Amino acid sequence: MFATAQLLTWGVSFAAVAGVITRPFGWSEWVFAVAGVALLVGLGLIGTGDVLAGVAAGTDVYLFLAGMMMLAEVARREGLFDWLAARAARAAAGSAQRLFLLVYAVGTLVTVFLSNDATAVVLTPAVAAVARAAKAPSAIPYLLVCAFVANAASFVLPISNPANLVIFGEELPPLAEWLSRFALPSLVAIVATYAVLRWTQGADLRGETARDIPIPVLSRGGRLAALGICIGAAILLVASWTGAELGLPTLLCGLATLLAVLVAERSDPRAVLKGISWDTLVLVAGLFVIVRALEKAGVSTVLAGLLRSLVAEGTELAAAVSGIALAFGTNVTNNLPLGLLAGATMAAVDVPEKVTDAILIGIDLGPNLSVTGSLATILWLTALRREGLDFGAWRFLKLGVLVMPPALLLALAALLLQPWT
In Å, how far are 136, 147, 165, 332, 353 from 111, measured between CA atoms? Predict the structure, then answer.
């Protein structure tokens, strides 16, 4: 009976995750996560106590995402990202190649300090508008930047990717330690991703762009949003430095920035709140519950056994194999549920630091292979469609095969070879 219940739990859970990734009938991702939880409860595979415990486990992530989405939406509505992108286009001085570099630099900064989801959701439409205004030969190379840098730069800081929070959980390293472990691999990943993207998009980066790009006037609300983001980044850096949880500071910063802009512009808060993807929080909560069900069904035990066997063969081998395997695994399961499972598995195994770091690198960088790898890439596709553009899954995969493996292998090599960790 236990074996049957175990198999049912695995089947329902993986079907729910498959629904999140593929979105049959065009339904939102959260629908499949919630349906999976409802089916698990309805079949008696988990109880309401497990549901509540699973939801509660994600509290810090919900607060973090809510605060980041609030900051990003305020900045978007006040035109901050349009202003930044237009400045980058003007600074390109008519060079399509220089514009590509500048967009990559802006995307890196947004990812590092506002998370990869903000890059995918907010920067994508701004970059599309600037590419049109600059009369670029093709908007696609610049839009691809938004997708690929969102993952390549997502482990510079703990706040750069929600997956970082779920992998480490309460064991999140303080900022100084984080930077000593991930600064070099992050730099290598960012540079390698840029180099391959630049090479593959070379044909569309020939010629000139318009030089006289109109710079939109940055409103008072936009300036306040920029100030709020800067203050928020500083607060989060301090929180990371001290090892404090990041969720509550992020939410408070988002609320304070929203309030300041609303008062300054005398605007209606409902417009901002309506623009935030609250269903993302429902999706994440559902995934937390599904992962808890999988833990109870023994998935973490199986994975823990495999991880112990790898570690017994040697730290370097375990780090390399784990990082590569999970990087490709993210494209089958999506990196958020896989990150949750990885975090639960590592909590049950005495894992060397380098193995833990390699797992995080794999989960963060792996999604650059396909459109199913991360929530950020899925959100990027949605933003692209709103602009009347499309970039098919097969086309993305053919590009991802060239972009992701070199960045992954070089980042893992940098991790394993750096002498100070």
Answer: 24, 10, 15, 23, 25
What are the b/e assignments for 269-300, b being 16+ CB within 10 Å?
eeebeeebbeebbbbbbbbbbbbbbbbbbebb
What span, in angstroms and rounded, lies between the C-alpha atoms of 205 and 114?
Answer: 28
Provide the 3-class DSSP secondary structure of residue 328.
helix
The C-alpha atoms of residue 150 and residue 111 are separated, in whole angstroms, by: 6
Coil, strand or helix at 208 = strand
SS3 95: strand
Residue 90 and residue 108: Cα distance in Å, rounded?
Answer: 19
How does pLDDT run along the chain (421 residues), one tens digit per residue?
457 888 888 888 888 888 887 778 878 888 998 999 999 999 888 999 999 988 998 888 888 888 888 887 888 888 887 787 778 778 888 888 999 998 999 899 989 987 887 788 778 888 888 888 788 888 899 999 999 999 999 999 988 888 888 788 777 888 889 999 999 999 999 999 999 999 999 988 887 888 877 888 888 998 998 898 888 878 877 877 776 777 888 899 889 999 999 988 887 888 888 878 788 889 888 888 888 888 888 777 788 888 888 888 888 999 999 999 999 988 877 787 788 888 888 877 888 899 999 999 999 999 999 887 887 888 788 778 777 887 888 899 999 999 999 999 999 999 999 877 6
Express the helix, strand and coil content of the chain in percent, nearest 5 each.
80, 0, 20
Supply the Cα-derived Rg of the chain in whole angstroms: 21
In whole angstroms, give the CA distance from residue 405 to residue 408.
5
Cβ within 8 Å of residue 20, ≥6 positions away: 29, 32, 33, 283, 287, 334, 337
| Residue position matching structure tokens 């970082």 | 164
Q: Is 207 helix (H, G, I), strand (E, B) or coil?
A: coil
Query: What is the C-alpha separation between 222 and 202, in angstroms, rounded?
Result: 34
DSSP state of 25: G
HSE, side-chain direction, 13 A CA sphere, residue 299: 23
Does this model's pTM top 0.70? yes
